[in-house]
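hey so i finally got around to running the thing on that chain from the lab meeting. sorry it took forever, my laptop kept dying and i had to restart like 3 times. anyway pasting the input first so we r on the same page abt which one it is
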Amino acid sequence: MQTIAFYGSSLLSAYWNGAATYYRGMLRALAARGYRITFYEPDVYDRQKNRDIDPPDWCRVVVYAGTVEALRAAAAEAAKADIVVKCSGVGFEDDLLLTEVMRAARPGALRIFWDVDAPATLAELRAAPDHPLRRALAGLDMVLTYGGGAPVIEAYRQLGAADCVPVYNALDPETHHPVAPQDRFCGDLAFLGNRLPDRDERVAAFFTRPARATPEARFLLGGSGWQDVPMPANVQRLGHVPTADHNALNVTARMVLNIARDSMAANGFSPATRVFEAAGAGACLITDAWEGVELFLKPDEEVLVARDGADVAEFLRSVPPERARAIGAAALRRVLAEHTYDRRAPISTSCSGGMPIWRPRHDPAARHRGAGAGAVLLLGQRPCHHLPRLLQGLYDEGHRVLFLERDVPWYAANRDLAEPAFCELRLYDDLPGLAADWGDRIRAADAVIVGSYVPEGGKLIDLVAAMRPRQFCFYDIDTPVTMALLDEGNTDYLHPRQIPLFDIYFSFSGGEVLTHLEQVRGAQRALPLYCAVDPTLYRRQEAEPRWDLGYLGTYSPDRQPTLEAFLIEPARRLPDRRFVVAGPGYPEDIDWPENVERIDHLGPADHPAFYSRQRFTLNVTRAAMRRMGWSPSVRLFEAAACATPIISDDWQGLGELLPEGEAIVIARSTEDVLRSLVSTAEPDRRALGEAARDRVMRAHTGRMRGRELATALRQETATAI
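ok and heres what got predicted. didnt touch it at all, straight out
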């Protein structure tokens, strides 16, 4: 376990300290990866009197007095760390702190300068050739920056930095998320930011002037330092807004404004913390224009971009509430999918000489290196359902992943994951093209995994087997169905003779099917690799229950009898309760009771809200899965991640995954469902959902699946050796 000594302005207080949220999100993500962190902050600017949080359990915090003696004592502790980080803008004797910290760092420790205001810092360096940081750059291993893009990277390299990597702001969905609105924050436009000299003019242009131009609208101004600045009568000053109130402010105001500082706007590629905080709350965000905004949120769909104050005023007049809500919802989906601190957090990898190098996950250089140690190549189709969670987890474990996908017309027209951050995604036209273009990568990879349902999968397996990959595996996402198709001789993605070719046969199902694969089908080794959930996307949303029981699933003839017995019949017997069924394909002749609401289509982004508005949700398993057992569906884990209590049909292995009566209700009759709906006390219902969520978070996330896959591949290598 590596230790980090981190010297910054303040982790505990956001008072006159815009970097607080950035520090918290990034360091908590690093702590989750096993780093042991100590944060050193000086007691200055009344920050300790205005703490937002108590010292967290994921980071030790040392607060030292604002004296040179205390600074030197704190800096001396850098000698204990494997990685030493000095941030810009600490606020007390920054130059001396940099010198003392880097002097104390032991030989072999990684030395990093983390710049949370790179444009301002670079301006200082250009103006002062003898600046202490400029002299120190040659002895540092890396500069990490809050943002700035290519201009900042190039500037630091020209000044002598060995490397410079932007690690942009992001969202921590555990702390910033949708909440209930609060009347005290009602208004048309809210801006939250401390007053700073290089922001005054832009605040006047993008906030004050629009306030004067739209006197019928109500404006909210939060942050420190604005008390003496003249404002129009329709501006309410909020003063310092504690971090705990940011969600309510962002949720309640009709729109939220981001205004970059002069230097940030000039350099571009510098999204502020408030951008992701607002998007994470589902707010309709208006931002001033700056280069690179489209890399983070899509203009007009996920964010509104204003060229000047007139644009801000026009947005206030012309954007109806329903469009504002749609923009906020789209922004929330985007930041949860691509811009969380968990995805941003640097990871430690190995390079020449064994020196650990940190790179952000979005860095193409970290993703697109050639095959080698830790490289995994997957041949599959459409990494857009359960696979992203697995691949993200595998990537988090330090593996480089290449996903090769057959380019077929239907998928080409319906792709929604063009360039994922967790893998290199490439297309091939046909099998000869695959061999010609990717044969070398297939042979060099540490493991090659072929998925089920790949077009011409049987021919592809023979082609890859002839290349003699180091490890050759199969991943079956529908094992019971595959077994039935093999018996019928009706599958072209896998032939019975090919099962013994694989070093490992990974299966979406566990239990007896694994024994069947090894003893009957001839698999060398069969292991379960269940579906998983992404906890950054699936989490409890605060909402009043709308339905007593709901079900999410496409119509299936073999599931319909269970749906009839476990939802439709209870709805008939409980006419005063509300039920819902979401999913396409249901025949028109189904006799739906009047208290059953039908939703024909529900996009994945809407699933968490759907689950969160149910008192109970129903899980119904396909017949083939139920016969074999040990076949959890992704819907089961998604509902549990939202802490929604689950009523499920019974199958072997379910009670081991989610203990019956503790984390799930297993129903064997209509009466069991009725009893749960009518007789379960509210505290018991909530406890059931929380227990399921706890189980899923500990054992059934994409990170855990990636770890299981990585462990299995390592064990196979060790056995082969």
